[in-house]
Amino acid sequence: MVNNSSISNNIENSISRAIDFLYQNQLPWGEFKTLACWNSFMLGSYFDSTPFVTSFVLYSLKDLEQKKVKIMTEKAISFLLSEQERGGIWRFWTSKNKKRVPPDLDDISTISFILRLNAVNFDDNLQLILNNRNQDKLFLTFIISKGEKYHFARLIDKFKDYIDCVVNANVLLYLGQNPETFPICSFINQAIKLNQPCSIYYPNKLALFYMVSRAFKNNVTNLGENRDIIIKSTLSYQKKPGVFGSHLDTALALNTLLNFDYSGKEITAGINYLLKRQLADGSWKKSFLFLGPFPWRYYGSEELTTALVIEAMKNYLYGKDL
């Protein structure tokens, strides 16, 4: 996608520095850090062990051939497998975390997709996922076993029937487009068309657009129905040329536009902005991407933002060649 050799060199150098940051900061057991915070500014944030963000980092790094990426990927996959429960189940908090929560389809789907992408065997969880739908064939977030109903009663009472668009988009990423998932495509497309709020875990619309575009790029073509609406809405977040808010917001926006094959001048402006904002250690600033299980906490990290920026730069630099 890039013809200018100067900017290409700058991007390649930036990606290399970002990979060094991730390599140096990956935890010894393979996890990439997730930080939790009680405020949306991520002030006073603290480490909160979860496999979820690691799956995002691996997605952003996919197709890169650097030796350090391969080493990080192997370590991260070992970590994800170590957190698997019988039946291909993952929970938001890891076994290293004292907090407990029921398994959820967001974690299960994103992690399963990454493992399959890397040709890694894991327990078959297809039927488990399909069994966690409501009467409209839309996916519920949490999988509640009979033995856990009492323990998680507060969470169950509040959100047991809520259908989250982003969670369903991530299920689509894993299950793909087929008759079983057509109702999800229709549900998400309708919500976007009508500009309806449809995610309590991802209050930022740019997160929704990114997840939808990611599923679309991975052959869920029905989600391309609202391509023009998503592109127009994403561009409306632009504060000044190429800047869509925080570093994380800008990375989400650029990835969304690139995933939908948009090639306007905003893309190059955004890449140049991120090149200038890279920190000395190779990272970009943290912002929250999602809300964790009730009671609400905000979640993000420098590692997550950095991975998403790498994804945007990689997609801009190599386009469809990857």
Task: List strands and helices in order, with pairings.
Layout: H1 5-25, E1 35-37, E2 46-47, H2 52-61, H3 67-82, H4 105-117, H5 126-130, H6 153-159, H7 165-175, H8 182-193, H9 205-217, H10 227-235, H11 247-259, H12 265-277, E3 290-291, E4 298-300, H13 302-318
Antiparallel strand pairs: 1-2, 1-4, 3-4
Helix pairs in contact: 1-3, 1-13, 2-3, 2-4, 2-13, 4-7, 7-8, 7-9, 9-11, 11-12, 11-13, 12-13
Strand content: under 5%
Major beta sheet summary: 4 strands, antiparallel
Number of helices: 13
Tell me the number of structural domains: 1
What strand order characterises the main sheet?
2-1-4-3
Low-confidence stretches: none
| Radius of gyration based on Cα positions | 19 Å
Helix content: 40-55%
- The arrangement of helices and strands along the chain is HEEHHHHHHHHHHHEEH
Structural class: mainly alpha
In total, the number of strands is 4
The N- to C-terminal Cα distance equals 11 Å
Shape-level CATH architecture: Alpha/alpha barrel
Q: Which shape, going by the Cα principal axes?
A: globular
Assembly status: single chain
Mean pLDDT: 95
InterPro entries: Terpenoid_cyclase/PrenylTrfase
Protein name: Squalene cyclase C-terminal domain-containing protein
